[in-house]
Amino acid sequence: MPPNGPREPYAGPEAGPEAPFPIKLCGPVIKGFGRGSKELGIPTANIPTEGLSTEHPTLPSGIYYGFVGLSLKSCPSAAAASTPASSSPSTTTTSLSSTNTTSSSSAPPAPPLISIHPAVLSIGFNPFYKNTVRSVEIHILHEFPRDFYGAALNLLILGYIRPEYDYVSVDALVEDIRVDCAVAARSLERPAYARFRTGAWEAWLTDFSWMEGVDAAEVERGVLNQ
């Protein structure tokens, strides 16, 4: 059960990430348990856990924060919807309050094919749902007009927020996740963390050359056991 009392507004030291951070993970977005959008109203992008298991087998379960680089080039529905003006690689950043604006035709503009966003993520088994498979569930702090299964995602984990908890209700779970989102957004706005979306780190976040070796059929089969 989560502890009583107010939550800390920030996570991680002011001076910047400490070991073992930053942690780099890559993977195509796969279908997860299907609960984020439907039950919680908090959509997640799931990636395979192989890289985590191989490179960081002792990383504790819990809630983390960082930046994601996202490429929609390998996502047919998103790529097809992109306008010619947004088809060239571009990088954008958003905060927790950012949303897509609405065009004069009332349809949201197509997202850029390559972008960077702050994110909060869960690594573990989600005690509330009693998962038996460890997962990496990423909530990107940005609104997207549609799902993007198959998209390439680079994840840069910069800090730890809290351990996993069980909850008495879905409402209690959602309330804590909302606080996690706010904590992640504030924490990433600090200069020592914001620098990780620029320079050499930006180059890594937007390098999806590893996707060339990914089998699209394997991505389609990469559905987490429920």
Automatic annotation (TrEMBL):
InterPro entries: Riboflavin_kinase (IPR023468), Riboflavin_kinase_bac/euk (IPR015865), Riboflavin_kinase_dom_sf (IPR023465). It catalyses: riboflavin + ATP = FMN + ADP + H(+). Belongs to the flavokinase family. Residues 81-107 have a biased composition (Low complexity). One of its GO terms (cellular component) is mitochondrion. The keyword Ribonucleoprotein does not apply. Catalyzes the phosphorylation of riboflavin (vitamin B2) to form flavin mononucleotide (FMN) coenzyme. It comes from the Eukaryota. This is Riboflavin kinase. Pfam families: Flavokinase (PF01687). GO terms for biological process: FMN biosynthetic process; riboflavin biosynthetic process. PANTHER family: RIBOFLAVIN KINASE (PTHR22749:SF6), RIBOFLAVIN KINASE/FMN ADENYLYLTRANSFERASE (PTHR22749).
